[in-house]
Amino acid sequence: MGPAGGATRPRRFFGVYLLYCLNPRHRGRVYVGFTVNPARRVQQHNGGRKKGGAWRTSGRGPWEMVLIVHGFPSAVAALRWAWQHPQASRRLAHVAPRLRSEATFAFHLRVLAHMLRAPPWARLPLTLRWLRADFRQELCPPPPPHVPLAFGPLPPRILASKRRANPCADAEAQRNQDSEAPCTLCARSLQDEEGPLCCPHPGCSLRAHMICLADEFLQEEPGQLLPLEGQCPGCKNSLLWGDLIWLCRMGTEEEEEDLELEEVSDGLGPTPPYPLGCCGPPFLSPQEHWTDMLEI
Q1: Which of 32, 42, 276, 290 is 20 to 30 A off residue 231, Cα-Cα?
Q2: Per-residue pLDDT tens digits for 132-171
Q3: How far is CA 49 from the centre of its chain?
């Protein structure tokens, strides 16, 4: 739950979408991609490669974006999602290959259903949004309880500015306060913590190391690495872990970097989408995944 009575805070948007081809010659084809701006991205696909679309969709339009999964904590997390190449992920070894009689669209929904339930993706604060209600189908198995279903276009989002301050407070004052204040939970200095977590509820003074608050939230779920939600030790309000991470990272990345990642996302999947010579996360083998490196 968000802060009681507080305004909705802007978030960085990272989504993985499913396109459906409406061209009678190619009807039924689908395409999975990454975007930070769905409306612009579908225009690029329908405009062809010269307009920034992918080579696999160029000249085969019109394409309709019918479904998008969003709420990823970073561009890397979305890019590493294995929806496009499920056969390359050991976490989806239990998902049977596409049947000869199975439509490509139905197969991708079947893979999605299992991905939302498979660890560690099942711990991410994702939202499943049907942009076209007439394409909606029930997933089997259904999404986890913390993954909401949404319908229709995304509400207008407030684009992050390079100079925008951390929404928890004035950026400069907040950094000074965090460098001097101790962790609420362990009482040790926050000086070496790049992004201490703070409670967004008005009047709450919680400032904590990420690992300290994660341990606090996971007391009810021993054995897990990534919390879903918990009670703030300060004000006792319910907090979603994903919201805390969003607020912590707000304004720390550049929008331009996201756009560059979007342009090279044709290789979306568990293998690196970055071309040779492009800056990006360390290369992983096809059997590895970004969440294997979680340290919390």
Answers
A1: 290
A2: 999 999 999 999 988 999 999 988 753 343 334 444 444 4
A3: 26
